[in-house]
Amino acid sequence: MLKSRKQETPDPSDAGPSGASLPEASSETGARRPRRSQVDRSREAREKLLQATIEVLMQRGYSGLTTKEVASCAGMSNGALMHHYANKAELVVAATAAVYDEAIKRGQRVAKSAKASESPIEGFITDCLSVYFDWPFIAALEVIMVARTDDELMQRILPVMENYRSTTNELWLSVFKNAGMTPTQARTVLNLTLNLVRGMAVNRMWQKDEKHYKLYLKEWVRIVREQIGPVGG
After folding, report:
1. Annotated region Disordered: where (predicted)?
2. How far, in Å, CA of 67 to CA of 70, rounded?
3. pLDDT, tens only, 194-218
4. How far is residue 197's CA from residue 207's CA, in Å, rounded to a whole number?
5. What is the pTM of this model?
6. How many C-beta atoms lie closer than 10 Å to residue 72's C-beta?
7. How deeply is 226 buried, as exposed, middle or buried, from its count of CB atoms within 10 A (0-12, 13-18, 19+)?
């Protein structure tokens, strides 16, 4: 599971003696932990590499990212990285896909929450803000800006973005319709809300105005309710 830097916390289970092998467990201390399989080790290595890719991407941007630095950040050799990902583009696309897979799961949790049930529009805004006002959008934007003039990279990254958008749209259109919106109302509210938040997210990169963003979004919810009537609850 990928996390932003501010979300990471040390795992107490990682602590332990260094440089010494553990003695064989007795009946008093319990059985030894089973050795990890090759599949488990490979999965953990990929997760470390993808997390490190996001870290470097956030710090240096796509143009400044190198596989050597990612490998170092992950505590691995460049050769070990190449065993899992053949080149920089493949690595970055895989990391972006992992970011948006997490965003989809987070959106699904929000859609099932009490807040989304009571106020679907506010629930959708919460989902949008968790992506576009945070590191997933910044990381993806770094890649998209380069892909704009790199056809090969665009062909790799576009399916990732389209999958996220179509999956998320389908999820929230269903929530809106279940709350009483017509299909046309649901599509209109979803797309206008999405583009409102995305526009703020771009503006936020150089002009952080959290107070007014919140006021505008609150006003947007009021306008929607005024136009289509109460939904949810």
Report:
1. 1-44
2. 5
3. 999 999 999 998 988 899 999 999 9
4. 14
5. 0.78
6. 15
7. exposed
The C-alpha atoms of residue 222 and residue 191 are separated, in whole angstroms, by: 17
Token output for 23: 């003695």
Q: Which residue range forms the structural domain that includes residue 74?
A: 38-86
Q: Is the pLDDT of residue 17 over 50?
A: no
Split into its structural domains, the chain has a count of 2
Position 10 pLDDT exceeds 60: no
Question: Does residue 112 share a domain with residue 80?
Answer: no
Contact at 8 Å (CB) between 94 and 45?
A: no
Residue that finishes a domain, picked among 63, 86, 109: 86
Please write the tens of the pLDDT for every residue from 221-231: 999 999 887 77
- Residue 73 · residue 94 · CB < 8 Å: no
Please say which residue of 55, 86, 117 terminates a domain. Answer: 86
Distance, CA of 57 to CA of 91 (rounded, Å): 11
